[in-house]
Amino acid sequence: MDDNEFDRLLIAAAFAAIAAEGWGRFSVAGAARAGGLALDRARLRFPRKAMVLIRFGRLADAGALAGAPEEGTVRDRLFEMLMRRIDVLQAHRPGVIALLRHLPFDPPLAALLGCANLASMGWLLEAAGVSARGPLGRLRAKGLVGVWLWATRAWMRDESQDLSMTMAALDNALARAERAAGFLPDGTRRAGATSEPPADFPEAGDAEPPLPPEEPGPGPAGPPADEG
């Protein structure tokens, strides 16, 4: 089993645990045991439990960027990549929703994921042919984070098989962002643009703040029952 397959199996076990018992009681060791995975390898791959979320985010980015569309408007390309990212969340829906409902009660973890999302949106912008460099690029990335959060909130309420509510919310949010920021005036790919980010563009790990402190033992199971 290679590292990617190991990580995917551990992440699946982790989100199953988060769905069942909340982020506070989840542990990497417990997920590894539940998934029948080697504890020593889990320790090396995920030294802190927040690393499960960082790795999950990178896998979601990979799913979005794989075969990034070359044709269509910037809005169309971003829509397709963001929906691919949603599809990765959908595969672990109960656990991801439990995690998202926990975040308002855990500001350090929310800050960590917010920073990682900013880097992720920069990658997607570059893949769509829009510069994410410099102050203007960072502003665009922040705008796309807002689009992502709007779509994610809709996804949390969307029980349809085809995620039609999510797609409608995402399309509407992208349309509003396009009007406000004008990703590209003519909606076409910039000359010379590629799906590779510039050399000085941060990867998710480079943009992340320090990991939040690890709990010494089982903590609260998450928000009160009436919150989730």
Give the helix/strand layout.
Blueprint: H1 3-21, H2 28-34, H3 39-45, H4 50-65, H5 74-90, H6 93-102, H7 107-127, H8 134-157, H9 164-181, H10 204-207
Helix pairs in contact: 1-2, 1-4, 1-6, 4-5, 4-7, 5-9, 7-8, 8-9
Structure in words:
By secondary structure, this protein is mainly alpha-helical. The chain folds into 2 domains: 1-47; 52-212, Tetracycline Repressor, domain 2. Helix content is 63%, strand content 0%. The chain contains 10 helices and no strands. The chain has helices at residues 3-21, 28-34, 39-45, 50-65, 74-90, 93-102, 107-127, 134-157, 164-181, 204-207. The radius of gyration is 18 Å and the shape is globular. The model is unreliable at 184-213 and 215-228 (pLDDT under 50).
Short key terms for the protein model shown above:
mainly alpha, 63% helix, 0% strand, 2 domains
Measured as a percent range, the helix fraction is 55-70%
- Tell me the CATH architecture of the largest domain: Orthogonal Bundle
Q: Main beta sheet, described?
A: none
Instruction: Specify Rg, calculated over alpha carbons.
Output: 18 Å
N to C succession of SSEs: HHHHHHHHHH
Uncertain runs are 184-213, 215-228
The tally of helices reads: 10
Beta percentage is under 5%
For this structure, the CATH topology of the largest domain is: Tetracycline Repressor, domain 2
Q: What sort of overall outline do the alpha carbons produce when their principal axes are compared?
A: globular
The top-level CATH class of the largest domain is Mainly Alpha
The total count of strands amounts to 0
The end-to-end span amounts to 36 Å
